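Weekly structure sync, notes
Attendees: PL (lead), two postdocs, one rotation student
Agenda item 3: pending single-chain targets
PL asked that the sequence for the first pending target be pasted directly into the notes so everyone works from the same version. It is reproduced below exactly as submitted, 299 residues in total.
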Amino acid sequence: MFQDPPHPPYSNPDIVLGAIDDLQPTVNFASQAEVPAFEQWGPRIIPDYQLFCLLSGEAEIRIGQEQYTLAAGDSALYGPHCPHRIITRTGAVFIGIHFAYRQSSLEPVHPAFSIEACSEEKLKASIRPNYKLELYNKELLELPPFFTKPDLKPILMRIVKEYMNEQPGYRIVLRSLMTELIATIVRNQLTKRPRSPEQGKIDPALQAINQQPEKNWTVNELAALCGYHVIYFSSLFRKCTGDSPKQYLINERIRKAKYYLLSGEKMEVIAERLGYASVHYFSRNFKEETSLTPTEFRN
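Predicted structure, written out during the meeting:
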């Protein structure tokens, strides 16, 4: 686990990256590397954003006046406004992904030629900004500069594989995977926020969907479980989850479908288990939601 430094005596400036639904992420570079102890990057300033995920070993990262120690499963997320330095304290394996949050072109722009060295003085004088995404109802969510989520490895490995192999269509697949990665980070951050009293009001509906995703729940049925009028319930549900009850049900089905696919279940069994009328309908819905066919996701 990373070690937090003392709270700094200054306020970090805010940088709003835009609305989450309007993002067009482009992966500029992705790699997995094994490095010895005391490998160092920086002090430097990168031209884009980077996710640095440590798979094994220990590393120290300094961003401005803040310093953290990362262990296996820890990640750092920073951008072009963040002078920083990374030093491995032991032999380490990591995945590094350079990307843009919003870029119309799918063409990767390798960051190497635009990385700038900076002085220790500039590094220590800089202040890390708070990067924020706009969610529903104009709410702003701060993206975590450092976080622990070991289960990111599978999607990070897929991003590296797509980037390295450059198979036909790899650019659009990278955008899809990067979108999923950002959404995963956002949702993980949302789970850490204190629950509001309003969220407790829809718990019966959430539990029903989670326990029986194969059932074609109607909004009326879910509202009745919570004891509210359907219009009030629908508004409250969207406010608390960011989705309509119907979309939440679809998301839950897709989440479970991913688990079953990676567990080796046959698609016919998965489709029936999750309430789809046919394998064709399941495959179409899965691709609409993930941009991948079930077979592509399993592979």
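Discussion points:
- The two ends are 31 Å apart (CA to CA).
- The mean pLDDT is 90.
Action: rotation student to compare against the earlier draft before next sync.
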